[in-house]
Amino acid sequence: QSVLTQPPSASGTPGQRVSISCSGSRSNIGTNYVYWYQQLPGTAPKLLIYKNNQRPSGVPDRFSGSKSGTSASLAISGLRSEDEADYFCAAWDDSLGGYWVFGGGTKVTVL
Amino acid sequence: EVQLGESGGGLVQPGGSLRLSCAASGFTFTNYWMSWVRQAPGEGLQWVANIKEDGSEKYYVDFVKGRFTISRDNAKNSLYLQMNSLGAEATAVYYCARQVADYGGGKDVWGQGTTVTVFS
């Protein structure tokens, strides 16, 4: 059972916009930054979004993040076949002495 | 090239121990917090522990406290995870990851992972 809640799956056709939600609580998303990671099949995770809505160098601007209250979302616009992957949200949680928490992941399928 | 490479995974019986290693290269290791994150087969990501640049602060997820120990040797650009009293739930791919302060702790570099299998 993950601390952050994500839908298990999402899908879209090429060119469409897909949005993935991430729900938490006051001790994590409500207080701290949200991060998003992309994991292509058989590979290590890759940082997509940091500090709620910032993209590391090299990440296309098709990926955008937002946060409101205790929820966050990742949007992928202009969906491409290479975006088919698992996406995980993450945040620092201030409870229990502090620890990083992840969502259970959302599998994005490009139809 | 900035790289992380894990090693030390393998098969271990319940109650056993393993020591994972992570070799860092291509960046100034002493400038970064480092983390261990694991992923059980077919499951999501689970943060395990992290350690400050100089090793003076360490944090663990609740269920590994007292059993796992994170450490680093800055002279060897290496990160370690000593895992004791292993149970089946520890079966996973273990990744080491670099945390970037400017990214608020976001983990921008990951290793390829090392697999730990606890079997009876």
**How are helices and strands ordered from N to C of chain A?**
EEEEEEEEE
Shape of chain B: globular
Oligomer designation: heterodimer
Low-pLDDT segments of chain A: none
- The number of distinct β-strands of chain A equals 9
Biggest sheet layout of chain A: 6 strands, mixed
Helix-residue proportion of chain A: under 10%
The secondary-structure class of chain A comes to mainly beta
Q: Spans of chain B with pLDDT under 50 lasting ≥5 residues?
A: none
Terminus-to-terminus distance of chain A: 28 Å
Question: What do the pLDDT scores of chain A average to?
Answer: 96
Quickly count the helices of chain B: 0
Helix content of chain B: under 10%
Using only CA atoms, what is the Rg of chain A?
13 Å
Terminal Cα span of chain B: 40 Å
Which protein chains are joined by the largest interface, and how many residues does each one contribute? Answer: A-B, 26 and 25 residues
Class by helix and strand content of chain B? mainly beta
Explain how this protein is built:
The complex is a heterodimer of chains A (111) and B (120). Chain A is an all-beta fold and 111 residues long. Helix content of chain A is 0%, strand content 45%. Chain A has strands at 9-12, 18-23, 34-39, 46-49, 63-68, 71-76, 85-93, 99-102, 106-110. The termini of chain A are far apart. Chain B has strands at 3-7, 10-12, 18-25, 33-39, 45-51, 58-60, 68-73, 78-83, 92-100, 106-110, 114-118. In chain B, the strands form 2 sheets. In chain B, strands 2, 4, 5, 6, 9, 10 and 11 form a 7-stranded mixed sheet that branches. A 4-stranded antiparallel sheet of chain B has the order 1-3-8-7, with no helix packed on it. Chain A binds chain B through residues 2, 33, 35, 37, 39, 44-47, 50-51, 54, 56, 88, 90, 92, 96-105, and chain B through 35, 37, 43-47, 50, 59-62, 95, 97, 100, 103-108, 110-113.
